[in-house]
Amino acid sequence: MVAPLNFDIEPEVFTIDLGLDGVFKMQRIASASFVVPGGSGSLSVFWILGYGGGIFVPCADSTNNVNTYGGGRYLFDTIKGADLGSDERAMVFDFNYAYHPSCTYNPRWTCPLAPPENRLDFPITAGEMLSDI
Predict the structure, then answer these.
(1) CB contact at 8 A, 124 and 98
(2) With contact defined as beta carbons under 8 Å apart, do 55 and 78 qualify?
(3) Number of C-beta neighbours around residue 23 at 10 A
(4) What is the pLDDT of residues 93-113, one digit of tens each?
(5) Residue 4 — left, alpha, or beta (φ > 0 → left; ψ -120 to 50 → alpha)?
(6) pLDDT at 87
(7) What is the tens place of the pLDDT at every residue in 85-97?
(8) Helix and strand element counts for the chain (H, E)
């Protein structure tokens, strides 16, 4: 689906301690609203400050700790090539491509996870599941 971007948001910077990997910073740049069969919601869209830069959309939903990693999944991450398309007004959200962060696979890795505003209260039953690992 194509999710329209709303830029009338507070551009807050989030700083996440990644332990031995240092500090990860991301800035909220927009929000995107969507409707899927399980519900409707909005996710904040972030710009990664430093590292490789790029757009980042971490998300969590009610499948976490059941069928998916407890900390959520990533929906959009231009650093890792998970970019299905965007322009200055909208971006493609395809939950079939939601994938687990690296920390799912090894506890020595610390990953940036979805902030509270990107935690959906309904299930997203598409994308990578723990049974896929």
Answers:
(1) yes
(2) yes
(3) 11
(4) 899 999 999 899 988 888 899
(5) beta
(6) 64
(7) 566 788 888 999 9
(8) 0, 7
